[in-house]
Amino acid sequence: MKQQYLILPEVLQIIPMSRTKWYEGIKRGVFPPPIKFGRSSLWKREDIEMLIETLSKGGIAPFHDERSRNFTEYNAKSKEKHMMASMERHIEQAQRLHNKLVKRVNNKQSAIAR
User: What distance in Å separates the CA atoms of residue 43 and residue 32, rounded to the nearest whole number?
Assistant: First the structure.
């Protein structure tokens, strides 16, 4: 049988909740982590069906597996990379501002010296 995958909007139609709550559940290991395919996140239909069955019986489906750890690490690395890029942009802006101010001060000093 061919493996079927769902994208997040399809998952959230089956299990109605916000994207934020869904990703919080993944971090806690309650919901299945996605399988990354390029920039896309996909979920195995069988994982979602297993989650529904377990929840309907009043249980909690633990998804503490390698994919969950990888997903958490991927998010942490992605956030770290984003923060570094943001910091670099701020440093570049500060350097440009500093250079402008130095130039203005030098221009005023040379005007005074004349």
Answer: 7
